Amino acid sequence: MNGAVLVTGVRPYGEAPCDLLIDGSVIAGVFDVALRPLVLSRVQPARVVEGDGLIVLPAFVDLHTHLREPGGSDQETIATGLAAAAAGGFADVFAMANTDPVTDTPERVAWIRDQAAAVSRVRTHPVGAVTVGLGGAQLAPIAELADAGVTLFSDDGRCVDDAGLMAAALSEAAEHGAAIAQHAQAHALAGAGQINAGFASERTGFAPWPVAGEAAVVARDAVLAAETEGHLHVCHVSTARTLEVVRQAKALGWPVTVEATPHHLMLSDDLAALGAPLFKVNPPLRSRADVAALRRAVVDGTVDSIGTDHAPHTVAAKQCGWPLAAFGMTGLETALPVVASVLERDGEVDWRLLNRVMHDQPARIGGLPEVADQQVRAGDEATLVFVDDRAELTVNAARQRTKALNTPFQGVTFRFAVVSTLIAGRQVHGDLL
Ligand SMILES: [Zn+2]
Protein backbone atom coordinates (compact mmCIF):
# COMPACT_ATOMS: atom_id res chain seq x y z
CA MET A 1 0.00 0.00 0.00
CA ASN A 2 2.55 2.56 -1.07
CA GLY A 3 1.03 6.00 -0.97
CA ALA A 4 -1.91 5.07 1.24
CA VAL A 5 -3.09 7.72 3.68
CA LEU A 6 -4.52 7.03 7.13
CA VAL A 7 -6.88 9.77 8.32
CA THR A 8 -7.32 9.25 12.04
CA GLY A 9 -10.23 10.01 14.33
CA VAL A 10 -12.84 11.00 11.75
CA ARG A 11 -16.54 10.36 12.31
CA PRO A 12 -18.41 8.70 9.41
CA TYR A 13 -21.94 10.16 9.37
CA GLY A 14 -21.12 11.91 12.66
CA GLU A 15 -20.90 8.57 14.47
CA ALA A 16 -18.06 6.92 16.44
CA PRO A 17 -14.50 8.04 15.58
CA CYS A 18 -12.70 5.82 13.06
CA ASP A 19 -9.44 5.71 11.17
CA LEU A 20 -9.99 5.92 7.44
CA LEU A 21 -7.45 4.26 5.16
CA ILE A 22 -7.45 5.73 1.67
CA ASP A 23 -5.46 3.85 -0.96
CA GLY A 24 -5.42 5.55 -4.33
CA SER A 25 -8.99 6.11 -5.41
CA VAL A 26 -10.66 3.82 -2.88
CA ILE A 27 -11.41 3.52 0.82
CA ALA A 28 -9.26 0.58 1.91
CA GLY A 29 -10.59 0.39 5.46
CA VAL A 30 -12.72 2.05 8.13
CA PHE A 31 -11.22 0.97 11.45
CA ASP A 32 -12.18 1.48 15.08
CA VAL A 33 -9.60 3.92 16.49
CA ALA A 34 -8.76 1.45 19.28
CA LEU A 35 -7.47 -0.96 16.65
CA ARG A 36 -4.92 1.50 15.25
CA PRO A 37 -1.90 -0.56 16.45
CA LEU A 38 -3.20 -3.56 14.51
CA VAL A 39 -3.67 -1.49 11.38
CA LEU A 40 -0.25 0.13 11.65
CA SER A 41 1.37 -3.28 12.24
CA ARG A 42 0.05 -4.41 8.85
CA VAL A 43 0.19 -1.20 6.82
CA GLN A 44 2.79 1.49 6.55
CA PRO A 45 0.82 4.42 5.20
CA ALA A 46 2.78 7.07 3.37
CA ARG A 47 1.14 9.58 5.69
CA VAL A 48 -0.95 9.67 8.84
CA VAL A 49 -3.25 12.70 8.95
CA GLU A 50 -4.97 13.81 12.15
CA GLY A 51 -8.70 14.00 11.36
CA ASP A 52 -9.52 15.39 14.81
CA GLY A 53 -13.23 14.60 14.98
CA LEU A 54 -14.11 15.80 11.48
CA ILE A 55 -17.32 14.32 10.11
CA VAL A 56 -16.87 12.36 6.89
CA LEU A 57 -19.65 11.78 4.37
CA PRO A 58 -19.91 10.78 0.72
CA ALA A 59 -19.38 14.00 -1.27
CA PHE A 60 -22.59 15.79 -2.23
CA VAL A 61 -24.61 15.75 -5.46
CA ASP A 62 -26.35 18.92 -6.68
CA LEU A 63 -29.16 18.46 -9.19
CA HIS A 64 -29.59 22.22 -9.61
CA THR A 65 -26.54 24.31 -10.50
CA HIS A 66 -26.41 27.25 -12.89
CA LEU A 67 -22.86 27.33 -14.25
CA ARG A 68 -23.84 30.11 -16.72
CA GLU A 69 -21.43 29.03 -19.46
CA PRO A 70 -21.84 29.21 -22.39
CA GLY A 71 -23.01 32.79 -22.71
CA GLY A 72 -22.89 34.12 -19.15
CA SER A 73 -19.22 34.13 -18.24
CA ASP A 74 -19.56 37.62 -16.75
CA GLN A 75 -21.64 35.93 -14.02
CA GLU A 76 -19.81 32.62 -13.60
CA THR A 77 -17.59 30.35 -15.65
CA ILE A 78 -17.57 26.58 -15.68
CA ALA A 79 -14.18 26.80 -13.91
CA THR A 80 -15.31 29.16 -11.13
CA GLY A 81 -18.63 27.36 -10.70
CA LEU A 82 -16.94 23.98 -10.34
CA ALA A 83 -14.36 25.43 -7.93
CA ALA A 84 -17.30 26.66 -5.85
CA ALA A 85 -18.86 23.20 -6.06
CA ALA A 86 -15.66 21.55 -4.81
CA ALA A 87 -15.43 24.10 -1.99
CA GLY A 88 -19.00 23.27 -1.05
CA GLY A 89 -18.30 19.53 -0.84
CA PHE A 90 -19.92 18.57 -4.15
CA ALA A 91 -18.46 15.88 -6.43
CA ASP A 92 -21.34 15.83 -8.93
CA VAL A 93 -23.28 18.79 -10.28
CA PHE A 94 -26.08 18.97 -12.81
CA ALA A 95 -25.64 22.06 -14.96
CA MET A 96 -28.97 23.67 -15.83
CA ALA A 97 -29.83 24.17 -19.48
CA ASN A 98 -30.76 27.88 -19.43
CA THR A 99 -27.47 29.02 -20.90
CA ASP A 100 -26.89 30.92 -24.15
CA PRO A 101 -27.13 28.90 -26.30
CA VAL A 102 -29.55 26.63 -24.47
CA THR A 103 -28.44 23.01 -23.88
CA ASP A 104 -30.85 21.45 -26.35
CA THR A 105 -28.57 19.50 -28.71
CA PRO A 106 -26.11 16.62 -28.16
CA GLU A 107 -23.29 18.89 -29.40
CA ARG A 108 -23.95 21.41 -26.63
CA VAL A 109 -24.10 18.63 -24.06
CA ALA A 110 -20.71 17.41 -25.24
CA TRP A 111 -19.28 20.94 -25.21
CA ILE A 112 -20.19 21.51 -21.56
CA ARG A 113 -18.90 18.09 -20.55
CA ASP A 114 -15.59 18.67 -22.36
CA GLN A 115 -15.10 22.16 -20.94
CA ALA A 116 -15.84 20.92 -17.44
CA ALA A 117 -13.51 17.92 -17.70
CA ALA A 118 -10.71 20.21 -18.88
CA VAL A 119 -10.87 22.44 -15.80
CA SER A 120 -12.12 20.32 -12.88
CA ARG A 121 -12.48 16.82 -11.47
CA VAL A 122 -15.99 17.71 -10.30
CA ARG A 123 -18.24 15.51 -12.42
CA THR A 124 -20.53 17.70 -14.49
CA HIS A 125 -23.80 16.36 -15.85
CA PRO A 126 -25.45 18.67 -18.38
CA VAL A 127 -29.22 18.97 -17.95
CA GLY A 128 -31.08 18.85 -21.26
CA ALA A 129 -33.75 21.41 -22.13
CA VAL A 130 -37.35 20.16 -22.23
CA THR A 131 -38.30 22.54 -25.05
CA VAL A 132 -36.24 23.92 -27.91
CA GLY A 133 -34.48 27.09 -26.81
CA LEU A 134 -36.52 26.97 -23.58
CA GLY A 135 -39.21 28.44 -25.80
CA GLY A 136 -42.05 26.40 -24.33
CA ALA A 137 -43.45 25.65 -27.80
CA GLN A 138 -41.66 22.62 -29.24
CA LEU A 139 -40.25 19.57 -27.51
CA ALA A 140 -36.44 19.34 -27.49
CA PRO A 141 -34.90 16.18 -29.04
CA ILE A 142 -35.21 14.24 -25.78
CA ALA A 143 -34.29 10.86 -27.29
CA GLU A 144 -31.14 12.24 -28.92
CA LEU A 145 -30.15 14.04 -25.73
CA ALA A 146 -30.76 10.90 -23.68
CA ASP A 147 -28.57 8.95 -26.11
CA ALA A 148 -25.90 11.58 -25.45
CA GLY A 149 -26.09 10.67 -21.76
CA VAL A 150 -28.57 13.23 -20.43
CA THR A 151 -30.49 11.82 -17.46
CA LEU A 152 -32.34 14.95 -16.31
CA PHE A 153 -34.35 17.43 -18.37
CA SER A 154 -35.47 20.89 -17.32
CA ASP A 155 -36.47 24.29 -18.67
CA ASP A 156 -35.58 25.68 -15.23
CA GLY A 157 -35.74 29.44 -15.10
CA ARG A 158 -39.00 28.93 -16.96
CA CYS A 159 -41.98 26.69 -16.34
CA VAL A 160 -43.18 24.20 -18.95
CA ASP A 161 -46.58 25.85 -18.81
CA ASP A 162 -48.25 23.84 -21.59
CA ALA A 163 -49.83 20.66 -20.17
CA GLY A 164 -49.64 18.83 -23.49
CA LEU A 165 -45.92 19.48 -23.84
CA MET A 166 -45.33 18.49 -20.23
CA ALA A 167 -47.19 15.19 -20.70
CA ALA A 168 -45.23 14.46 -23.87
CA ALA A 169 -41.95 15.30 -22.15
CA LEU A 170 -42.71 13.04 -19.18
CA SER A 171 -43.62 10.17 -21.54
CA GLU A 172 -40.58 10.51 -23.71
CA ALA A 173 -38.14 10.98 -20.84
CA ALA A 174 -39.60 7.90 -19.13
CA GLU A 175 -38.73 5.78 -22.17
CA HIS A 176 -35.10 6.67 -21.48
CA GLY A 177 -35.24 6.38 -17.70
CA ALA A 178 -34.86 10.15 -17.30
CA ALA A 179 -36.74 12.62 -15.11
CA ILE A 180 -38.31 15.99 -15.90
CA ALA A 181 -37.38 18.68 -13.37
CA GLN A 182 -40.10 21.32 -13.38
CA HIS A 183 -39.77 24.96 -12.32
CA ALA A 184 -43.40 25.22 -11.21
CA GLN A 185 -44.69 28.73 -11.90
CA ALA A 186 -48.09 29.04 -13.58
CA HIS A 187 -47.76 31.93 -15.99
CA ALA A 188 -51.35 33.09 -15.57
CA LEU A 189 -51.07 33.14 -11.78
CA ALA A 190 -47.49 34.15 -11.13
CA GLY A 191 -45.86 35.07 -14.42
CA ALA A 192 -45.15 38.62 -13.34
CA GLY A 193 -44.52 37.81 -9.69
CA GLN A 194 -41.71 39.62 -7.91
CA ILE A 195 -42.15 38.76 -4.23
CA ASN A 196 -44.29 36.49 -2.03
CA ALA A 197 -47.97 37.43 -2.17
CA GLY A 198 -49.39 38.75 1.09
CA PHE A 199 -47.38 40.62 3.69
CA ALA A 200 -44.30 41.07 1.48
CA SER A 201 -46.12 42.22 -1.67
CA GLU A 202 -48.37 44.55 0.32
CA ARG A 203 -45.47 45.98 2.29
CA THR A 204 -43.31 46.65 -0.79
CA GLY A 205 -45.87 47.18 -3.53
CA PHE A 206 -44.03 44.70 -5.77
CA ALA A 207 -46.04 42.30 -7.94
CA PRO A 208 -47.29 39.31 -5.92
CA TRP A 209 -46.07 35.73 -6.59
CA PRO A 210 -48.81 33.65 -4.94
CA VAL A 211 -48.55 30.17 -3.43
CA ALA A 212 -51.12 28.84 -5.91
CA GLY A 213 -48.81 29.71 -8.81
CA GLU A 214 -46.57 26.88 -7.65
CA ALA A 215 -48.98 24.40 -6.06
CA ALA A 216 -51.41 24.38 -9.00
CA VAL A 217 -48.67 23.42 -11.47
CA VAL A 218 -47.38 20.69 -9.18
CA ALA A 219 -50.91 19.26 -8.81
CA ARG A 220 -51.35 19.23 -12.58
CA ASP A 221 -47.91 17.75 -13.23
CA ALA A 222 -48.39 15.07 -10.56
CA VAL A 223 -51.48 13.90 -12.43
CA LEU A 224 -49.55 13.91 -15.70
CA ALA A 225 -46.75 11.90 -14.08
CA ALA A 226 -49.25 9.32 -12.86
CA GLU A 227 -50.91 9.10 -16.27
CA THR A 228 -47.67 8.86 -18.26
CA GLU A 229 -45.66 6.94 -15.63
CA GLY A 230 -43.00 9.58 -16.20
CA HIS A 231 -40.80 10.79 -13.34
CA LEU A 232 -41.67 14.32 -12.21
CA HIS A 233 -39.03 16.04 -10.10
CA VAL A 234 -40.30 19.29 -8.62
CA CYS A 235 -37.58 21.95 -8.38
CA HIS A 236 -37.28 24.24 -5.36
CA VAL A 237 -40.61 23.57 -3.64
CA SER A 238 -41.34 26.62 -1.50
CA THR A 239 -44.82 26.41 0.00
CA ALA A 240 -46.75 24.35 2.55
CA ARG A 241 -49.59 24.03 0.02
CA THR A 242 -47.29 22.41 -2.53
CA LEU A 243 -46.11 19.97 0.12
CA GLU A 244 -49.73 18.95 0.78
CA VAL A 245 -50.11 18.16 -2.92
CA VAL A 246 -46.84 16.22 -2.95
CA ARG A 247 -47.82 14.16 0.11
CA GLN A 248 -51.05 13.15 -1.63
CA ALA A 249 -49.20 12.20 -4.80
CA LYS A 250 -46.62 10.17 -2.90
CA ALA A 251 -49.30 8.43 -0.83
CA LEU A 252 -50.89 7.35 -4.10
CA GLY A 253 -47.58 5.98 -5.31
CA TRP A 254 -47.22 8.51 -8.12
CA PRO A 255 -43.69 9.00 -9.51
CA VAL A 256 -43.00 12.39 -7.96
CA THR A 257 -39.84 13.57 -6.20
CA VAL A 258 -39.19 16.95 -4.65
CA GLU A 259 -36.29 19.33 -4.15
CA ALA A 260 -35.88 22.06 -1.56
CA THR A 261 -33.18 24.73 -1.60
CA PRO A 262 -31.08 25.71 1.40
CA HIS A 263 -32.28 29.32 1.16
CA HIS A 264 -35.97 28.39 1.29
CA LEU A 265 -35.19 26.34 4.41
CA MET A 266 -33.67 29.30 6.24
CA LEU A 267 -34.88 32.64 4.86
CA SER A 268 -38.41 34.05 4.86
CA ASP A 269 -40.39 36.77 3.13
CA ASP A 270 -40.12 39.32 5.95
CA LEU A 271 -36.43 39.48 5.03
CA ALA A 272 -37.36 39.99 1.37
CA ALA A 273 -39.78 42.73 2.40
CA LEU A 274 -36.79 44.75 3.65
CA GLY A 275 -36.25 45.32 -0.07
CA ALA A 276 -32.62 44.28 -0.72
CA PRO A 277 -32.40 42.59 -4.15
CA LEU A 278 -29.97 40.01 -2.69
CA PHE A 279 -33.14 38.40 -1.29
CA LYS A 280 -34.91 38.34 -4.65
CA VAL A 281 -35.19 34.76 -5.84
CA ASN A 282 -37.57 32.62 -7.86
CA PRO A 283 -39.69 31.12 -6.36
CA PRO A 284 -39.68 33.89 -3.76
CA LEU A 285 -38.82 33.55 -0.10
CA ARG A 286 -42.06 32.52 1.60
CA SER A 287 -43.69 32.98 5.01
CA ARG A 288 -42.15 31.67 8.22
CA ALA A 289 -44.94 29.08 8.31
CA ASP A 290 -43.88 27.84 4.87
CA VAL A 291 -40.24 27.69 6.01
CA ALA A 292 -41.26 25.64 9.05
CA ALA A 293 -43.36 23.30 6.86
CA LEU A 294 -40.43 22.85 4.49
CA ARG A 295 -38.12 21.91 7.38
CA ARG A 296 -40.63 19.35 8.63
CA ALA A 297 -40.91 17.97 5.11
CA VAL A 298 -37.15 17.37 4.97
CA VAL A 299 -37.28 15.52 8.28
CA ASP A 300 -40.35 13.41 7.39
CA GLY A 301 -39.02 12.49 3.94
CA THR A 302 -41.52 14.42 1.82
CA VAL A 303 -38.58 16.39 0.45
CA ASP A 304 -36.26 14.00 -1.39
CA SER A 305 -33.29 16.18 -2.20
CA ILE A 306 -31.56 19.46 -1.49
CA GLY A 307 -30.68 21.37 -4.64
CA THR A 308 -28.72 24.59 -4.35
CA ASP A 309 -30.24 26.53 -7.28
CA HIS A 310 -26.82 28.21 -7.30
CA ALA A 311 -27.62 31.27 -9.43
CA PRO A 312 -24.66 33.61 -9.82
CA HIS A 313 -25.26 37.15 -11.09
CA THR A 314 -23.16 40.22 -11.77
CA VAL A 315 -23.14 43.05 -9.24
CA ALA A 316 -24.94 45.25 -11.78
CA ALA A 317 -27.76 42.72 -12.15
CA LYS A 318 -28.37 42.76 -8.40
CA GLN A 319 -27.77 46.44 -7.59
CA CYS A 320 -30.44 48.08 -9.66
CA GLY A 321 -33.54 48.26 -7.51
CA TRP A 322 -35.82 45.32 -6.80
CA PRO A 323 -38.13 45.32 -9.86
CA LEU A 324 -35.25 45.24 -12.36
CA ALA A 325 -32.88 43.04 -10.33
CA ALA A 326 -32.23 39.47 -11.47
CA PHE A 327 -33.76 36.56 -9.56
CA GLY A 328 -31.32 34.27 -7.79
CA MET A 329 -28.69 33.65 -5.13
CA THR A 330 -25.41 31.77 -5.02
CA GLY A 331 -25.59 28.59 -2.98
CA LEU A 332 -22.89 25.99 -3.59
CA GLU A 333 -20.54 27.20 -0.85
CA THR A 334 -23.20 27.80 1.80
CA ALA A 335 -25.36 24.69 1.24
CA LEU A 336 -23.71 22.49 3.87
CA PRO A 337 -23.55 25.14 6.62
CA VAL A 338 -27.16 26.17 6.01
CA VAL A 339 -28.64 22.67 5.77
CA ALA A 340 -26.69 21.39 8.80
CA SER A 341 -27.85 24.43 10.80
CA VAL A 342 -31.45 23.86 9.77
CA LEU A 343 -31.29 20.18 10.78
CA GLU A 344 -29.57 20.88 14.10
CA ARG A 345 -31.58 19.89 17.19
CA ASP A 346 -30.11 20.42 20.67
CA GLY A 347 -26.65 20.69 19.18
CA GLU A 348 -26.93 17.45 17.21
CA VAL A 349 -27.31 17.04 13.45
CA ASP A 350 -28.84 13.96 11.84
CA TRP A 351 -25.97 13.42 9.40
CA ARG A 352 -27.60 10.28 7.99
CA LEU A 353 -30.57 12.41 6.98
CA LEU A 354 -28.30 15.09 5.54
CA ASN A 355 -26.50 12.38 3.55
CA ARG A 356 -29.81 11.11 2.17
CA VAL A 357 -30.95 14.51 0.92
CA MET A 358 -27.57 15.78 -0.29
CA HIS A 359 -26.10 12.56 -1.71
CA ASP A 360 -28.12 9.33 -1.93
CA GLN A 361 -31.42 10.66 -3.20
CA PRO A 362 -30.19 13.36 -5.57
CA ALA A 363 -27.82 10.80 -7.11
CA ARG A 364 -30.66 8.35 -7.61
CA ILE A 365 -33.04 10.99 -9.03
CA GLY A 366 -30.27 12.17 -11.35
CA GLY A 367 -29.79 8.68 -12.77
CA LEU A 368 -26.48 7.96 -11.02
CA PRO A 369 -27.27 4.73 -9.11
CA GLU A 370 -23.59 3.80 -8.78
CA VAL A 371 -22.94 7.15 -7.08
CA ALA A 372 -26.04 6.76 -4.90
CA ASP A 373 -24.72 3.42 -3.62
CA GLN A 374 -21.40 4.91 -2.47
CA GLN A 375 -20.95 4.98 1.30
CA VAL A 376 -18.13 5.56 3.75
CA ARG A 377 -17.03 1.92 3.81
CA ALA A 378 -14.19 -0.31 2.67
CA GLY A 379 -14.16 -0.90 -1.07
CA ASP A 380 -16.11 2.20 -2.05
CA GLU A 381 -14.67 5.13 -3.99
CA ALA A 382 -12.94 7.73 -1.85
CA THR A 383 -15.26 10.52 -3.00
CA LEU A 384 -15.76 12.21 0.31
CA VAL A 385 -16.40 15.45 2.11
CA PHE A 386 -14.85 16.27 5.49
CA VAL A 387 -16.94 18.63 7.64
CA ASP A 388 -15.97 20.56 10.77
CA ASP A 389 -18.97 20.88 13.10
CA ARG A 390 -17.08 23.12 15.55
CA ALA A 391 -16.13 25.75 13.02
CA GLU A 392 -16.77 29.46 13.03
CA LEU A 393 -17.39 30.22 9.39
CA THR A 394 -18.37 33.78 8.56
CA VAL A 395 -19.60 34.03 4.98
CA ASN A 396 -17.61 36.51 2.92
CA ALA A 397 -18.61 36.68 -0.73
CA ALA A 398 -15.26 38.15 -1.74
CA ARG A 399 -13.47 35.06 -0.42
CA GLN A 400 -15.72 32.49 -2.08
CA ARG A 401 -14.67 30.53 -5.18
CA THR A 402 -17.75 31.56 -7.14
CA LYS A 403 -17.20 34.57 -9.34
CA ALA A 404 -20.45 36.11 -8.12
CA LEU A 405 -21.05 38.13 -4.95
CA ASN A 406 -24.78 37.53 -4.58
CA THR A 407 -24.84 35.34 -1.49
CA PRO A 408 -27.77 36.18 0.80
CA PHE A 409 -25.69 35.07 3.81
CA GLN A 410 -22.97 37.75 3.73
CA GLY A 411 -21.60 38.25 7.26
CA VAL A 412 -23.54 35.35 8.78
CA THR A 413 -21.51 32.96 10.96
CA PHE A 414 -22.11 29.21 10.83
CA ARG A 415 -20.91 26.37 13.06
CA PHE A 416 -20.41 24.05 10.09
CA ALA A 417 -17.76 24.21 7.37
CA VAL A 418 -16.46 22.01 4.58
CA VAL A 419 -12.77 21.36 5.26
CA SER A 420 -11.85 19.12 2.35
CA THR A 421 -13.42 17.41 -0.65
CA LEU A 422 -12.02 14.30 -2.33
CA ILE A 423 -13.02 12.85 -5.68
CA ALA A 424 -11.74 9.31 -6.29
CA GLY A 425 -9.00 9.88 -3.72
CA ARG A 426 -7.84 13.21 -5.19
CA GLN A 427 -8.26 16.29 -3.06
CA VAL A 428 -10.20 18.90 -5.05
CA HIS A 429 -10.66 21.33 -2.18
CA GLY A 430 -8.89 22.02 1.11
CA ASP A 431 -5.55 20.99 2.56
CA LEU A 432 -6.43 18.12 4.87
CA LEU A 433 -4.50 15.49 2.91
ZN1 LIG B 1 -36.06 27.49 -11.07
TrEMBL record:
InterPro entries: DHOase, DHOase/Allantoinase_Hydrolase, DHOase_cat, Dihydroorotase_CS, Metal-dep_hydrolase_composite, Metal_Hydrolase. Keywords: Hydrolase, Metal-binding, Pyrimidine biosynthesis. It holds the Pfam family DHOase. Coiled coil: none annotated. One of its GO terms (cellular component) is cytoplasm. Catalyzes the reversible cyclization of carbamoyl aspartate to dihydroorotate. This is Dihydroorotase. It comes from Pseudoclavibacter caeni.
